[in-house]
Structure formats: structure tokens, C-alpha cells
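Hi all, posting the design record for the shared folder.

TITLE: backbone redesign
STEP: 1 of 1
STRUCTURE INPUT:
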């Protein structure tokens, strides 16, 4: 998914499991001192520099790492939006992680290592989506809990840019099932200081099993061209993910000869966009492309677009994987019919081999269709478990290195590897459309 939130339906989150350590309440406090507290030996970076966010703003300093209580117990945590409209998507990702752990009875190394799992919510009710303060608090909590050796997250790339530097200084590896903003990993694909600004310790600790938006934005542009689009107006939600994918789409569209009639960043908290839609309608576009997520008011944009007279058979609406969820359909209602979305992979039911087996087992276990990123969360958990099996002890740095060294992984997404930047070798994506109130797969789209 990407720098803003990605979305979705609704289910009740499962209870989290926390391991209590002496003085845990104190360790969880968010430190605001400019310096960083000394880390324990497992962090292997006692004089770590203060983490910074793009622009040089100091991030919250990690708290001191507690000593793991049981040397034969390690913990995986997830950081996903379990509050707001992204809950449905996130809950299915949690289901996928639990499914992967259940297959090994939550153990590794021939049963010698027990793996615990904790669900952390990176969203708040006040924000209705991921919340920067909550992300930072969760990151510090992870660093403080010495049993945590891997984190799975985030759904939103904007959240990832805050947590990566904090976890980096404690050697905690993060495996993302959904973050697609290129600047998190790829030199020259984001802002000038990216991606190095996210890795203050000088080593990489972030990986993702989903292709990045420099590929997805290009795929979307080519797909729009094949759909007969000649004139497009581009919107974005002004968040890292949404703006980033819209940038790539715009560049691709221009290269392909599609006329870009204009571009505008929206206020995601606006009550309606009728004035904007009338302005766009007057330009006579073939399509509106929206770089953003369902949580960025995509449903309201679509409603107002249709209500001012831009019918689906005349003006297409396309967005990235951030809108490919049930929540978008719920928000847009009947006006969601005909909406197009790209996705950084294949829908679960289109997976083959191990993926097809997993899809059948998920449906049997949960009696429901998995959302777009469920398979990716499952795969992320399998990668973490494989790394723990290689190291067979609580050693954050060693487990991080084992994850980054993943090659020829035969998983539900196919056979793939991480490159030197932590990006997946997978490049196959998909085009999807809302038909009959459901997302329907249209075709596989190969990134150039």
C-alpha cells in the first residue's frame, strides 16, 4: 500500500497478547529528549544517533531495550490500522499472520523456540486512520521489548517512514506487506535524502514483499492508455503514498501522449468535492486518476464525480491499490460501479501453486474472502519465521540479516527474492474493476 492509509471493511480485531516485563510501564513512555538512550547489547549500537524524519526533524528517541525474559521465546508484532475503515483490510492481514504461525504451532527450530505474536494498532479513533503519535509510541514499545525480533507493517507508507528509523537503531527488521512508496528503499526514486534518511544506523532493516509504486504508477499509465484514455485529470491526497504514485502516473501518462488536463491535491477532510468536480467536468476528461486511499475520502470523490454528471461510461475513475478494498465499495455505494484499480500483485483467487493452496485454506479457515493484502501479510510472516529458523536464538541483528538475505523464496506469491534494497523481485501486477458490487480481476499487468 504506500504512504497514506489503505483501507477497509470491518471485522472485530482479535485480542492482543503482551508480555509483561518488570518496569514495562516506564519503558513504554515516549521519550522526548534529543539524545538517544543507550541500547542493550542486543541492539549493538550503544551510541546510536537521533532518528530523523525527512527534513531533519528529530524523531522520538527509542527507549532503552529491556532484557528478554525467556531466551527461548521471541515475538513478532504487527503494526496495522485496527481502527477506522482500514480495519477490515487489517483484520484479514492479522488473520494471515496468525495462519502462518498456526502452521508451525507458533514454534521454530524443531520446537525449541516459541514465537509469540502481538497486534499493535497504529491508528486512533480521533484520526480515523494511522496516527503519527501512535506510530512513534508503538515503535518505542517494540524497541523496549527485548523479545521482539521482527515487525510486520505498516499498511501506510507514511507510517513506515516514522517507524523505520526508530527500529533501525535497535536492529529490528520490518517486513511490509503493503508499503509501496519507492523512497523507502530506492535511491533516486523519492526525495533527495531518501532512502538513507530512514537508516541512521547505516544498515538496512526494512523489506517489502509487494512491488513499489515506481512500478505501479507506470503500470496504471499504460493500462489507462490501453483503455482508450486520451485526457486525464489527476488528483492526490497530498500524502506520501498518494502523491508518490500520482507523480509516477503523471510522468507515464505524459510519456504515452495522454493529455494531463490538470492536477490538484485534495483536502481529505472536505465534506464534498462538487465544486472541484464541476471544474474538472468542464475540461471534458476521459478519466480522473486519484493517488490516494479509501481513507482519503475516495468514496466521496467518486460520488460527487457521478453526481455532477460524469457518468462511468463517459469518464473513468482509476486509483492505486490503496482503494482496492471493500471499504471503497461501501463508501461509494452504487457510484462505485466501474471504478478501476491497479494492485501490486495478483488477487488471492488468481494465485497459483502454493498460492492457490493457501487461498483454499484461508477460505476454509475463516469462511471469507481474503482482502487484497492478506496473502502478503501471510508471506511476510513466513519470511520472519524462516529467518528465526535460521538463527534459532533471540538475536535481532542476525534475524534482520537473515530476512534481508532471503533468496528464491518459494511462497504463496511465487518464487522471489529480496534485492540489496530490500525490494521484492516480483513485478507482476493486476488491473481490477468494481462490477456487481465486488472487485473483479481484469488482467495481469506486467511492469516494464
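Okay, here is what came back for every position:
SEQUENCE:
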Amino acid at each position: 500500500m504506500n504512504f497514506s492509509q489503505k483501507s477497509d471493511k470491518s471485522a472485530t480485531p482479535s485480542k492482543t497478547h503482551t508480555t509483561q516485563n518488570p518496569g514495562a510501564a516506564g519503558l513504554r513512555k515516549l521519550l522526548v529528549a534529543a539524545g538517544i538512550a543507550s541500547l542493550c547489547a542486543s541492539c549493538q549500537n550503544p551510541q546510536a544517533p537521533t532518528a530523523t524524519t525527512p527534513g531533519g526533524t528529530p524523531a522520538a528517541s527509542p527507549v532503552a531495550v529491556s532484557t528478554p525474559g525467556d531466551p527461548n521465546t521471541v515475538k513478532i508484532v504487527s503494526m496495522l490500522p485496527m481502527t477506522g475503515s482500514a480495519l477490515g483490510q487489517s483484520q484479514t492481514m492479522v488473520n494471515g499472520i496468525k495462519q502462518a504461525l498456526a502452521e508451525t504451532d507458533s514454534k521454530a527450530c524443531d520446537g525449541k523456540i516459541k514465537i509469540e505474536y502481538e497486534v499493535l494498532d497504529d491508528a486512533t479513533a480521533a484520526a480515523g486512520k494511522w496516527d503519527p503519535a501512535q506510530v512513534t509510541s508503538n515503535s518505542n514499545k517494540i524497541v523496549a521489548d527485548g523479545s521482539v525480533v521482527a515487525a510486520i507493517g505498516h499498511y501506510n507508507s507514511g507510517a513506515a517512514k516514522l517507524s523505520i528509523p526508530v527500529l533501525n537503531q535497535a536492529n529490528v527488521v520490518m517486513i511490509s506487506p503493503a508499503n509501496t512508496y519507492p523512497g523507502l528503499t530506492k535511491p533516486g526514486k523519492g526525495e533527495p535524502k531518501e532512502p538513507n534518511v530512514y537508516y541512521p544506523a547505516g544498515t538496512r532493516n526494512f523489506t517489502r514483499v509487494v512491488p513499489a509504486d515506481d512500478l505501479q504508477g507506470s503500470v496504471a499509465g499504460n493500462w489507462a492508455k490501453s483503455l482508450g484514455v486520451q485526457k486525464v485529470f489527476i488528483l492526490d491526497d497530498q500524502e506520501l503514498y498518494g502523491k508518490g504514485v500520482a507523480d509516477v502516473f503523471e510522468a507515464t501518462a505524459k510519456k504515452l501522449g495522454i493529455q494531463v488536463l490538470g492536477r490538484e491535491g485534495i483536502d481529505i477532510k472536505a465534506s464534498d468535492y462538487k465544486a472541484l468536480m464541476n471544474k474538472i467536468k468542464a475540461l471534458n476528461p476521459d478519466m480522473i486518476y486519484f493517488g490516494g486511499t479509501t481513507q482519503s475520502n475516495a468514496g466521496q470523490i467518486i460520488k460527487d464525480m457521478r453526481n455532477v454528471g460524469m457518468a462511468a461510461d463517459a469518464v473513468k475513475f482509476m486509483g492505486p491499490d490503496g482503494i482496492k478494498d471493500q471499504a471503497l465499495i461501501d463508501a461509494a455505494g452504487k457510484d462505485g460501479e466501474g471504478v478501476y484499480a491497479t494492485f501490486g500483485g495478483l488477487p488471492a483467487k488468481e494465485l497459483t501453486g502454493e498460492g492457490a493452496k493457501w487461498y483454499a485454506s484461508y477460505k476454509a479457515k475463516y469462511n471469507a474472502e481474503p482482502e487484497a493484502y492478506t496473502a502478503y501479510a501471510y508471506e511476510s510472516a513466513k519470511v520472519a519465521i524462516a529467518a528465526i529458523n535460521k538463527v534459532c536464538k533471540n538475536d535481532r541483528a542476525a534475524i534482520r540479516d537473515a530476512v534481508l538475505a532471503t533468496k528464491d523464496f518459494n511462497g504463496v506469491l511465487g518464487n522471489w527474492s529480496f534485492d540489496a534494497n530490500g525490494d521484492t523481485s516480483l513485478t507482476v501486477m493486476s488491473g481490477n474493476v468494481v462490477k456487481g458490487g465486488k472487485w473483479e480481476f481484469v488482467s495481469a499487468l506486467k511492469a516494464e
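COMMENT: Residues 374-391 form the longest helix (18 residues).
Let me know if anyone wants the other runs.
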